[in-house]
């Protein structure tokens, strides 16, 4: 896995073996993963073009590490550093995930995550380290102009009511909703 610019995030680019029947690639292998991910839940979303899901994160500890794959269609996946005190706080990085290249993104607990659907339809599978816990799940408005994620032009954004009502990064910070970088680092140390 290749490290992304935000500490605690990686991009997996598998070797795709293709022949006349189709293709095969190793989508995920726990051994050798740079951040421990004990899978407690697997989520699957099916979304149409322009749908933005996120930016979501969970309180740490325990937080929720995720490994995200687009198994049908194409998405632009966004990792957002929402950890207060992090050297890259407020920064984001995007990676295109699709069913042809078979890549995935691994994010550590405390990082924000979202994506936009680029194809007519996309199916996204997430391996999650913790089950969904609505009392510990939070979000940042994905179109927050201060955060200014570089979502692609030409797509009409479609948001859930929950994501449309999510606070800006600034308001989430003022409300004390964001994970603390030092607490996240201490939690990561317990995973080895």
Search tags:
single chain; 192 residues; mainly beta; Jelly Rolls; six-stranded antiparallel sheet; five-stranded antiparallel sheet; 3 helices
What does this protein structure show overall?
The protein has helices at residues 161-164, 169-174, 181-189, and strands at residues 2-3, 9-12, 17-19, 22-24, 41-48, 52-58, 66-72, 74-81, 92-98, 104-107, 111-117, 121-128, 137-139. It has 192 residues and is mainly beta. The protein has one domain: Jelly Rolls, CATH 2.60.120.10. It has a 6-stranded antiparallel β-sheet with strand order 1-2-10-7-12-5, with no helix packed on it. Strand 3 and strand 4 (22-24) form a beta hairpin. The two termini are 18 Å apart. The relative contact order is 0.25. The model has no long low-confidence stretch (mean pLDDT 95).
Summarize the structure.
The chain has 192 residues and is mainly β. The chain has three helices and 13 strands, in the order βββββββββββββααα.
What is the third-level CATH name, the topology?
Jelly Rolls
Number of domains: 1
Outline type: globular
SSE arrangement, N to C:
EEEEEEEEEEEEEHHH
Q: Write out the CATH superfamily name.
A: Jelly Rolls
Distance between the termini: 18 Å
- Helices, by number, come to 3
CATH class type: Mainly Beta
Residue ranges: pLDDT <50 for 5 or more in a row?
none
pLDDT averaged residue by residue? 95
Helix/strand/pairing category: mainly beta
Please tell me the CATH architecture by its name: Sandwich
């Amino acid at each position: 896995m290749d490290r992304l610019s935000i500490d605690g995030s990686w991009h997996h680019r598998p070797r795709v073996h293709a022949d006349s029947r189709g293709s095969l690639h190793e989508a995920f292998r726990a051994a050798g993963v740079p951040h421990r991910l004990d899978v407690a839940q697997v989520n699957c979303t099916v979304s149409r073009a322009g749908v933005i899901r996120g930016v979501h994160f969970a309180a740490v500890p325990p937080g929720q590490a995720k490994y995200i794959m687009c198994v049908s269609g194409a998405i632009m996946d966004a990792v957002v550093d929402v950890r207060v005190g992090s050297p890259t706080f407020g920064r984001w990085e995007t990676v295109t995930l699709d069913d042809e290249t078979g890549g995935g993104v691994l994010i550590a607990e405390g990082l924000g995550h979202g994506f936009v659907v680029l194809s007519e339809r996309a199916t996204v599978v997430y391996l999650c380290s913790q089950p969904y816990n609505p009392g510990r799940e939070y979000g940042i408005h994905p179109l927050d102009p201060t955060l200014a994620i570089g979502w692609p032009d030409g797509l009409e954004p479609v948001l859930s009511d929950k994501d449309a009502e999510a606070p800006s990064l600034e308001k989430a910070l003022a409300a004390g909703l964001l994970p603390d970088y030092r607490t996240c680092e201490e939690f990561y140390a317990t995973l080895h």
